[in-house]
Amino acid sequence: MVAKNILVVDDDAKCREFIQAFLAYKGYTVSLAKDALEALTITDRGNFDLVITDLMMPGMNGLDFLKRLKARQPEVVVIVSSAFSSAESRANILEAGAYSCLDKPFDLQELDTLLQGALDHTPLLPSKTEIKSAIKNRKLMGNIIGESPKMRSLLELVEKVADSDSTALILGESGTGKELIAQAIHTLSNRKNNNFVPVNCGAIPEDLLESELFGHVKGSFTGAIANRVGRFAMADKGTLFLDEIGDMPTSLQVKLLRVLQSREIEPVGGNSSRKIDTRIIAATHQNLEELVASKLFREDLFYRLSVIPIVVPPLRERKEDIPLLAASFLKRMNDEKNRQIDGIAPDALQALCDYQWPGNIRELENLMERLVIIKGSGTITLSDLPEKFTGLIRSAPTPAAKTYALPTAGINFNDVIEEFENSLIMDALEKTQGNKKEAAELLNLKRTTLIEKLKKKNLSSPGLRFTA
To answer: What is the DSSP letter of 394?
Structure first.
């Protein structure tokens, strides 16, 4: 690994030294600063790949330091840590250019994962010109909110896809914002001045969907009292978004394939076709490959649609974005509902971050609307959240857990970290009666990661049987 230079800025000497020991163990080159002014002097003298700064510091705070540093060195990646961050402060931090926010006390595995993502991200910001270009394009992406590594990768792909006329297939669970991604592709393309036409293939009855897509001529069927222009024609020179394409009847799949091949449409009951110049973007929450294997979706159409597959991550895989999303929804709901919610208490925000969000962004948005209406004013607290959130709160660390009494003779750092990690894993497995999936959720790990750790460490417990 090429050594990476990291600067740690914190007024707490013990915290600085703790982070320095962990980063040095991981192979990073670490410099320390006790406050923002010293950090600015150090960064002016040397080149750093990443800066970790505390938010609450005497003199210049972490947010002001972030702004000053970004004005001087916009390419440097910054992580801001705090024990007292709120949804509003997180939003301000990210808006000022931070890569991410990190809660104190530190979760070492979370810090390690965040560092890897942040340092992998640095090559994407090689020049001020490209940074300005990226910021400009983000403004054109409308309501897409997210600064997590997965969202940044997704938006970079959107920018590349927009430049072409290739058919794109957006994949993702319900509520992840697939239509917003399709709209962003259209807005960034050379078709932006023409129509973006959405069609939900699962919401229109089968006998009406063909007419909806291709139009019909007067008298072609009962109720066709006049000629009607279809969505394909409406999207000519623009973009047609076929949402929930997996629900399209197989009889229509054949006709859609023909249109993609010939670029011609023929209205229902018509006897002539017309050329169209329409870009197709499709989306689905279903696994189309499984539908193809089950003969419920045409294989040739699948390959035609998935020229460029785009996967939208579920909210549980981009939890760093939850505070920013929640703050955005609160601001909008305050304006729409004429309410005055100040923000979200730290323990309530932690509960939102710990929840798995099966309904994704749509579920979070609905919750924020409900809370704003019912609460009306003040700060949203843990007691304001529905019951299903309260069982997921991480226990606050005891004072003894925050510090470690270092013996005069010293310690084996690796052994201490290993012992602590083993203890956490076994505690989680005991709490879930050996269920690996539930234990992984308690530890905020992927199930496969936990299984690999169990194999590597050869962990077991008398009387405890591990299950999937």
So the answer is: P
| Residue labelled with tokens 């991550």 | 313
Kindly state the tokens that stand for 97.
């250019």
| Choice between 2 and 102, residue whose per-residue pLDDT is larger | 102
CA-closest candidate to residue 26, choices 50, 56, 53, 57: 50
State which residues form the domain around 421.
404-457
Closest CA to 243 of 189, 154, 298, 183: 183
CATH, residue 203: 3.40.50.300
As for how many domains the chain has, the answer is 4
pLDDT tens for residues 361-378? 999 999 999 999 999 999
Contact 205, 173 (CB under 8 A): no
Termini Cα distance of the chain: 35
- Tell me: do 157 and 255 sit in the same domain: yes
From 53, 10, 21, select the one nearest 417 (Cα to Cα).
21
Q: Give the CA angle between residues 367, 369, 371 to the nearest 5°.
A: 70
- State how far the Cα of 147 lies from the Cα of 152, in Å rounded to an integer: 6
Residue 200 near residue 209 (C-beta atoms within 8 A) = no
User: What's the average model confidence in pLDDT over 235-257?
Assistant: 93
Residues 181 and 108 in one domain: no
Residue 140 to residues 92, 179, 192, 194, Cα–Cα distance (Å) = 20, 15, 11, 16
**For residue 364, which of 377, 373, 355 has the smallest C-alpha distance?**
355
Dist. CA 107–CA 172, nearest whole Å: 29
* CA 363 centroid distance within chain: 14
C-alpha span between 371 and 334 (Å, rounded): 10
What angle separates helix 206-214 from helix 250-262, to the nearest 10 degrees? Answer: 10
Beta-sheet strand order (sheet of 239-243): 196-200, 239-243, 279-284, 168-171, 308-311
- How many Å apart are CA 39 and CA 395, to the nearest integer? 34
On whether both 196 and 293 belong to a single domain, the answer is: yes
For 192-212, write each residue's pLDDT tens digit.
999 999 999 988 888 789 888
Residue the block writes with tokens 């490959």: 289
Report the share of the chain in percent with pLDDT over 90.
35
Q: Where do the DSSP E strands lie in 73-130? A: 77-82, 100-103
The Cα 219–Cα 226 span in angstroms is: 7
